[in-house]
Design brief:
The protein is of the alpha+beta class. The chain folds into four domains: about 100 residues, Conserved hypothetical protein from pyrococcus furiosus pfu- 392566-001, ParB domain (Alpha-Beta Complex), CATH 3.90.1530.30; about 40 residues, Arc Repressor Mutant, subunit A; about 55 residues, no CATH class; about 55 residues, SH3 type barrels (Roll). The chain has twelve helices and ten strands. The strands form two sheets. The chain has a five-stranded mixed sheet with strand order 1-5-3-4-2. Strands 9-8-7-6-10 form a five-stranded antiparallel sheet, with no helix packed on it. Helix 2 crosses helix 3, helix 9 runs antiparallel to helix 10 and helix 9 packs parallel to helix 11.
Length: about 325
Amino acid sequence: MSYAQKLDDVAALLDHLEGLEPPIGSNGAPLEIALSLIEEDPGQPRRNFDALALEELAASIRERGLLQPIGITEKQENGMHRIVFGARRFRAANIAGLTTIKAIIQPGQAGDDPYDQMVENIQRDDLSATEIAAFIETRLKAGEKQKDIARRLAKSKGFVAMHASVGQMPKVLRDKLSTSPLRAVYELYQLWKRDAARVEEFCARHESFTRPQAEAFIEEASAKPNDSDKADLSTDRNFRPEHLAPQPVEEASKKDARGLRTGELAPAAPRKSSSEVIVRVRHEQRGGRLVLGRVSNRGSHFALVVLDERDDEADVLLSELALIEMRMEASLP
């Protein structure tokens, strides 16, 4: 290759690189990027931004500057960077009147994974239950399984199941998610399926409530029969033994010493079982044994479980239990 041809190749390379920004953020250091070159992610899981909180953050930025940079993608085809995390800081910087913002470029395809912002926001406890529920509903509609969503969010299957149920809740319960903890609303939802009137009356009396308050109400409602139960009890009282027509009495002479009629075979004695069924379960990474033969006082959506590290029984939501093993085990004589 001639010297002149080499020069032509170098010139062509320089023409190709002209106007391009040098690699930024490759060493992890934040850079000042123009706000006009940054756009929000339309798939951002956070939908609600408190206006007062944004104003307070903007005032802090004016006073002390932005202490924590945002994360953005490399430039896209439209010439814009897209926010990976830090949408609230980005909005506050605009309110504060900044023209640039500290940002760290996320290399490769950062931002393409819908879980990127979700995990970051959950770790910062920066999302409402409704926003998390909306994201989980989107992933379920995309064909993902609850267990896979839980794994990618690094959360329990119970966490995902509770948020997945928000879309099925009645409006009276969904409205409480902004003022009351999700677990309390979720447990009320289980009762609502059996006794909607009582739960709606409870919600009408309480603008907000804690989990202990909800649990106390559920326990009281489960122990107190509703109107239909009272009707059943009233009906049952009409059928007392003394109201039954007298039955003919068998003549003693037609029965033997065992009380059997002549020619009647004695029933076989019930066989005593020498083994019992053991059901092993897991709850929030802890193993345990399901208590069979008895039900939880907290309703049909709870089970009694004896956890391995405890001797007492605990009431656990069925949706939070994973079935691990079923086996027969010899019972003590």
